[in-house]
Amino acid sequence: MLLRVAWRNVWRNKARSMVIVIAVALGLWGGIFSDAFMQGMSQQLVHSVIYTQTGNIQLNQPGFLVNHDMALTIPNTDSIVTQVENIPGVAGAATDIQIAAMASTASGSAGIMINGINPGEYVKVNELNKMLTEGDYFKDSRANQIVIGQQLADKLKVKLHSRIVVTLQTTAGNIVYGAFRITGIYSTSSTDFDGQTVYVRDDDIRTLVNYLPGQASIITVLLHNNDDTKKVTDAIRGAYPNLQVQPWMELSPLLQMVTGTVQQTAYIFVGIILIALAFGIINTMLMAVLDRTHEIGMLLSIGMKPRLIFSMFMLETVFLSLTGAAAGMAVSIGSIYWFGQKGINLSVVAQGINAFGYSSVVYPTLGVDFYADLALMVFVIAMIAGVFPARRAIRLKPAEAVRGD
C-alpha cells in the first residue's frame, strides 16, 4: 500500500517531477556515454598493441629486451612454437628476429627496428596484413622485400617500389648493408610505431646477419581470449623456465596503468554527476514537503506513525531517482549501441591522438557490470538525498502543520 501511495505522490506535480527525471536522465546519459567513449578508446588501444606489437605473451632470452643483444637468441624455435600452440587457449605462435638498424635513402636516414618474420606464420599473431594502405603483404617470393610504416615513408620521402638501404651488425660484430625494395606500406593507430618498425622475411635477414635456421629473438603468442593471459603465461613459464615469458601487461606497463585508470575515472566521473544531481533531488523533495505541509499534519493528527511518513518520502525520492536513472540508462544503451556500430570519427584530431597510440575512429563500449554498479550507486545516492526532506516532514508539529504554519 505504501509503495502505491508513494508512486502516486511522485506524479502529483507532474511538471516538477518530470524536470528532475529529465535532469537525472540527461546527467546519467552524459556520464555513461563519456565513460563508454573512454572505455572504447582504452580497449582499442589494448587491441592495437596486442595485435600489432606484443601479442598476448612474448618469449625471449632474459635481458634481450634491454638492448636487443643479438647473442641472446632462442634456439630450436620450431619445436617451441609447436608445443606452445598445443597449450589450451593459444590461438597461434610465431617467431620474430628483431634487430636494431639504420635505414637510409637519398633523402635521409632513420633508426629502425627490423622484424624478420615468416609471413605465413606471422598472420596468426599479428594483423599487419590487414593494415596495408599501399602494396601487398609479401605477395610473392622475391628476396629482400620490406614493408614499412607510413610515418617512416614520409620521413624518408619514399614510396612503393622505392629502395631502402639498411645498415646493421652481424652476429660477429661486423657492419653489413642490405638493399630492400618497398613492397608494402602500412598504417596503425600509433605514429611512433609506424615511424620505426619495418618487416622483412626472416630468411633475408638471416642471410645478412648469419643467424642459424631455427634461431629467433622473440616468440609471440596470441590467445583466443585475453582473459586467459595469466593462466597461459603461467603454463608457458612452467614449460620453459629458462626463458623470459612476459604478458602484454608487463611488456607495456603504461598501457595497463592507462586501462586501470580509465575504469576508476569512469566511476569517479559518474559519482560526481550523481552527487550534483542529489542536490536537485533534495530541493525537489523539500518543495514537496512544503507543498504538503497541511496533508502531513493531518496524517500525523489522525495517528499515522512518523516512521511511515518517513518511509513514504524516502520511497518517493527513490522512485523519482530510479525513474530518471532508468530513462538515462535506456538512452545511453541505445546511443552506445549505435555509435558502437558506426564509430565516432576523430580524424580532425587524428594526428594528435595517433601520437599517443589511439585510433582516430572510436567505438564506445561498456560492460553490463557497469550498469549494475551504476544502479546501486543511484539507489545509495537516492537514499542519502531522501533523508533530509523525510526528516523535515516528520519533524513538523501536527497542530502547526494543519494550520499551514
Summary, kept brief:
The chain is an alpha+beta fold.
Description of the molecule:
- With 405 residues, the chain is an alpha+beta fold.
- It is 55% helix and 19% strand.
- The strands form 2 sheets. The chain has a 6-stranded mixed β-barrel. The protein has a two-stranded antiparallel ribbon with strand order 11-12.
- A hairpin with a 2-residue loop joins strand 2 (90-105) and strand 3.
- Helix 1 (2-10) crosses helix 13 (306-342), helix 2 packs across helix 13 and helix 13 (306-342) runs antiparallel to helix 15.
- The longest helix has 41 residues, at 14-54.
- The two termini are 29 Å apart.
Give descriptors for this structure.
405 residues; alpha+beta; 6-stranded mixed barrel; 16 helices; 12 strands; elongated
Produce the secondary structure layout.
Elements: H1 2-10, H2 14-54, E1 57-60, H3 64-67, H4 77-85, E2 90-105, E3 108-117, H5 119-122, E4 132-135, E5 145-149, H6 150-156, E6 163-169, E7 175-186, H7 191-194, E8 197-201, H8 202-209, E9 218-223, H9 229-239, E10 244-247, H10 248-251, H11 253-291, H12 293-301, H13 306-342, E11 344-345, H14 350-354, E12 361-362, H15 368-394, H16 398-403
Parallel strand pairs: 3-8, 5-7
Antiparallel strand pairs: 1-9, 1-10, 2-3, 2-6, 2-9, 4-7, 5-8, 6-7, 11-12
Helix pairs in contact: 1-13, 2-11, 2-13, 11-15, 13-15
